[in-house]
Amino acid sequence: MSQNKAKIRIHIVGCGPRTGTTLMAEMAIACFAIDLYTEHEDSIYTRPTRQAEIFLTKRPRDILVAEPILHLLPNFYVIYMLRDPRDTIVSKHRKDPDRYWASLRYWKAYTPYGCKLQNHPRFITVRYEDLVQKPDEVQAYLMQRMPFLTKRASFSRYHELAQPSQRSLDALRGIRPVASSSVGKWRNHLPRVAGQLQIHGKQAIAKDLIEYNYESDESWLNELQGVTPDYSESHWPEYFTPEELKQRTRGKYSRAFAAFLRNLGN
Fold it and tell me: Helix (H, G, I), strand (E, B), or coil: what is residue 99?
């Protein structure tokens, strides 16, 4: 019996949690002619449930395992969501609204993989800040990089058309017109930023912010002078153990990857 296949596969990943992967997925589903997608987060190895022209999935952590599939499959595209790490660490999720969701551990672990793939023709980096400040320009850029996409509506109108699952609604904290109010929100949470830099080290992001053009120098650190650090726990732990990181980059994924390879010829 033949396996279900998709002519084109698009997978959305991120530089960590709270980087806009859900927003990007819901915009794409609502505004492009995408005929198959999964409810919220599913592995890069997820098989389509039926024949499809374009199959879309998303899972931020799969930035760690995207490279081999990009090299293996000519019809596989990755959208990589990049966001100012200071804003990601002050973001909260509806599932745990009283705590910050994630720490700098993700930025430190994930961004080297995104950097390595940045020049691959089917690896498309989108800044969260651009997505919420100029969504229609980002949409045009995606259509330039993926000419097979057919526009049904403008990204700036996605909220009028989106029908997200409850899990996606929780991640988005509701459907509303796209807005830039979340950009630079870290300035309202300086104790959290100060605490994260104490835990993970100032250089965990200071040089990266310059490299990724979020800052021109390190003068922003002056805003933290005299701020009492907030060391409260995030929803997710501060560090990956070596075993955890091994699992995410190889470990349990190795079996899934082997099954994925076996199914390619079916």
Answer: coil
The set of residues, in sequence order, having a beta carbon less than 8 Å from that of 152 and lying 6+ positions away, is: 30, 31, 32, 33, 161
Interval 51-104: pLDDT, tens: 999 999 999 999 999 999 999 999 999 999 999 999 999 998 888 889 999 999
What is the mean pLDDT of the segment spanning 153-163?
A: 87
CA distance 136 to 51: 30
Residue 219: which residues within 8 A CB-CB, separation 6 or more? none
How far apart are the C-alpha atoms of 25 and 173, rounded to whole Å? Answer: 15
Q: Which amino acid is at 44?
A: I
CA 189/CA 131 separation, integer angstroms = 22
Task: Please tell me whether the overall predicted TM-score, pTM, comes out greater than 0.85 for this model.
Answer: yes
